[in-house]
Here is the input.
Amino acid sequence: MGARIAYADVEVGTELPAQRFPVTRETLVRYAGASGDFNPIHWNERFAKEVDLPDVIAHGMFTMAEAVRVVTDWTGDPGALVDYGVRFTKPVVVPDDGKGAEIEVSAKVAAKLDDDARTVRVDLTATSAGQKVLGMSRAVVRLA
Here is the structure.
């Protein structure tokens, strides 16, 4: 597998297709099982409120992983991801209302880093309920 986007075809400012990712309580339970992170703030509303959270919140690593899907879907190859980092700014609150929450992610090419390595930096914006949930969200990818 390899990236399907050619380095030569990308310019600074190129926007990646934005995506929305639904998050329900069921999603969080499945993620907890897969990750082994059973912290009750991610599934127990009473406990979450006792520790001064507004409700159950999504796992930070889950939020981070959903956001970078915009980049890996764009490249066509998850292996093209060279580096990725974020700051967690706000939690994704997931109410038990049958709808849950949604993470909205947009991204654009912020810099062409290395012609020889064909790497670019992509800056991401991730929000939920109108609030930015990830800050300094940046990915480096190797293109074709």
The chain has three helices and five strands.
